[in-house]
Amino acid sequence: MGVNENYNQHSCIMTSRPNAVDHQLKKLFGTLVKSEGLDTNGINDYLNKQFKSDDIKLENLSNLLDKNPHLQELCKIPVNIAMLCNIITENTSQVVDINNMQDLYQQMIVDLGKRFFSKHPKYSPNNNTKVLREKLQNGEFNIKELKVLQELASYSFKNSEALTFPGASNNRNDIQDNTIQSAINRCAKKSGWSQEKKPTISDIYSYGILKTELNPNTETIIMHDTELNGQLFSFIHLTFQEYLAANEIITSLLSYQNGQGRLPEYNSEIGNICQFLAENRDNPRYFMLLKFMSGIVSRSGNNDSIQAFWESMTCNLNGVLDLGNDKKVELLMHLLGQIDKKHYQQLTKQIPNYSTIEKYIDDTIKTQGIFKWADVIKTSNYLSPVIQAILLSSSNLQLIVELIAALDNSITFRNSKNQDCQPYDYVKELITELFTKSYQENNNQQLLELYKIIARIIHFIDLDSQTKLQIVESLLTKINDKSSAALVMRHINSDNKKY
User: Fold this and answer.
1) pTM summary value
2) Predicted local confidence at residue 222, as pLDDT
3) Could you tell me if 319 and 277 lie in one domain?
4) What's the CA gap between 297 and 250, in Å, rounded?
5) Nearest to 278 by CA among 250, 317, 323, 244
6) Are residues 271 and 354 in the same domain?
7) How many Cβ atoms sit within 10 Å of the Cβ of residue 3?
8) How far apart are CA 244 and CA 252, in angstroms?
9) Domain that holds residue 468
10) Count of domains forming the chain
11) How far apart are CA 254 and CA 250, in angstroms?
């Protein structure tokens, strides 16, 4: 039986990385079922179970999500909300500043580092490790174990399709194999570590970012290299590997950019990195890694590195701007969406051909229609002034609410009074105005339209709970679909607890 016949007889279920499904693969299936992850109720249920005995933590996390709808969008993915809960639990005495996925993974690696420091003898408080601890807290991954993990993540990602790797090969001095020991050896060669100063496989494993595949019950493993050499490892989640690999590539790029006098061999290494990025920018496997890289390089403030990265993303091998097709537009939107919105205008000035890139994206969305690109806008957090204007002129109220509600709150909108306001506040004003006006004018058609999306907009109606309840109850009497009405009432009753 041929490949096409096989596809005709079977279903394909992808539980992760839906962007990896290309157009040709989609054409082989008649139905596409998309998993949206946790909805608002699912997120709330998860938080209530995690912090059922700690109202303060629950309130702090709820407030954090309310202020950052884009972070709430990330929490639809179970691993992300699990990490966020862990971070809140670990950092009870300090304010956690998390605005996007990069912040989330960085803080999680920092927290794992704190645990590692507390249990590893060479990082005990009585040793001279204060500077390393402070640098880790500031997001500088200078400790040897993290350097090896970054090297391992990057090398494995670039040189092997497999997501697993052994502890060591027969040749413990090898630097070419995709093993933990080879990653240690490569880092030792780059950094000049002596044999005595090398971390062990046990040290790397103890950091907490790797898991064993041959013996998943890690509690029973004796933590010595002799026991770990033959184990098969992987990162605890693919996104950790992608984040660490992105960090390693940007760190390498920065180190070569800062090379003394820009020696020829440094230029060669920069060229190799840029060529690697250019060759893989259209490969769905590298989508998440490139997103992380965009955010990391923009925060570096290094003009040369920013230019090198973005030219790799947008130019062909002859240096000519090559923006490509819809997939490239989607990639560019996600890359731009990783840039800190608080300093967006300043940071985008460093991107070569930024105006051309933005115009190409906007023209594509205008031509094809904003509805087609709604999911990408929501997940990428990209919103140029042109797209904002198109969005606000749309007659599709549900589209407006869903998109604006999911956007980063550092984006500002102009309200009807020509005042700057955050997305959440803009939606609140818009919905309240429409809701109240429709009710006062007894505009049943508009009220029915609002009803259809009331489960999504109820949080944005800025009225006291009693008035809100009266309006909605009056509206629901006009609805024949009692099961839908009951669902809406559950949303309302849940929401009223906040008022």
Assistant:
1) 0.77
2) 43
3) yes
4) 7
5) 317
6) yes
7) 8
8) 12
9) 420-496
10) 5
11) 6
